[in-house]
From TrEMBL:
It comes from the Eukaryota. Coiled coil: none annotated. One of its GO terms (biological process) is DNA-templated transcription. InterPro entries: Amide_Lactam_Regulators, XnlR_reg_dom. Residues 123-192 form the Xylanolytic transcriptional activator regulatory domain. CDD domains: fungal_TF_MHR. This is Transcriptional regulator family: Fungal Specific TF. GO terms for molecular function: DNA binding; zinc ion binding. Keywords: DNA-binding, Nucleus, Transcription, Transcription regulation, Zinc.
């Protein structure tokens, strides 16, 4: 299966750097230290590498690197992503990824890809599968010695934020109920860009509650909606204002349904 082949270094290395510099600090789905410190190149998950490239390929800086083979032609971003995505979907359906944590990360990254009239439904399904796998291994439960800085804690809360995002986009119920979560949410004040993403997702969770079938006739959050500057605070050294600012602006009640 072509999806099992590694992308050429001239593709995966620059795209991996784009991903970690522009995406992962906001949504830390991948433990960069563990990923980059792997001694043997062949021991890295080829599917995780491809999923990272799938996300990074949408950035304009990736355009000069979008080749599927060393001697392959340069592809448009949409064609490149379609080929990568189809291979990943087939690989996940065939259970070719044996590392469960890598599988969770791959599925979560796939949920960030949406193409075609069924794209949103497929993306939501990938996230659902990632959350199911995460609950199976107990990422939502506390463990001795585990702190908010633990990559697996961050991975879980990334899934939590993506759950809120997909629920709002697709008009679906959220999958993760807060009452079933046994770990504390990281302090948004000390988490940099991820903290801002998490804080905005908290707002989104509140907004979603206004639109549940069981909600009353309240008109929503009319006053006191936090400004983006209030969420960012004074420490904004690694905050992507363009991306997070748009995400925050879209959270006001009435913008989703």
């Amino acid at each position: 299966m072509r999806a099992c082949d590694r992308l050429p270094p001239t593709t995966r290395e620059p795209l991996t750097e784009i991903y970690f510099s522009k995406v992962n600090h906001i949504i830390p789905l991948v433990d960069r230290e563990a990923f980059t410190s792997t001694l043997a190149e062949n021991s890295k998950s080829v599917f995780l590498e491809r999923a990272i490239c799938l996300v990074a390929a949408k950035d304009r800086d990736a355009r000069p690197h979008l080749r599927l083979a060393v001697d392959g032609s340069l592809l448009p971003a949409r064609e490149f992503c379609s080929e990568i995505y189809k291979g990943l979907a087939a690989a996940m359906d065939a259970d070719l990824e044996t590392d469960r944590l890598a599988r969770i990360r791959v599925l979560a990254l796939m949920s960030l890809h949406c193409e075609g009239y069924e794209g949103a439904e497929a993306a939501s399904l990938h996230l659902c599968q990632a959350i199911h796998q995460a609950q199976t291994v107990g990422l939502h439960l506390d463990r001795p010695g585990r702190t908010s800085a633990d990559p697996l804690v961050k991975l879980f809360w990334c899934l939590w934020t993506l759950d809120k995002m997909h629920a709002s986009i697709g008009g679906r119920p959220v999958l993760l109920a807060d009452r079933d979560i046994g770990i504390e949410k990281p302090d948004t004040k000390i988490q940099g860009a991820f903290g801002v993403w998490l804080a905005i997702s908290d707002l989104l969770a509140t907004v979603i509650s206004f639109y549940r079938p069981s909600a009353g006739t309240t008109s929503g959050w009319e006053e006191g909606f936090p400004a983006f500057e209030d969420i960012v605070g004074d420490d904004a050294h690694d905050v992507d204002f363009a991306s997070l600012g748009v995400f925050h602006a879209s959270q006001r009640p009435g913008r989703f349904y």
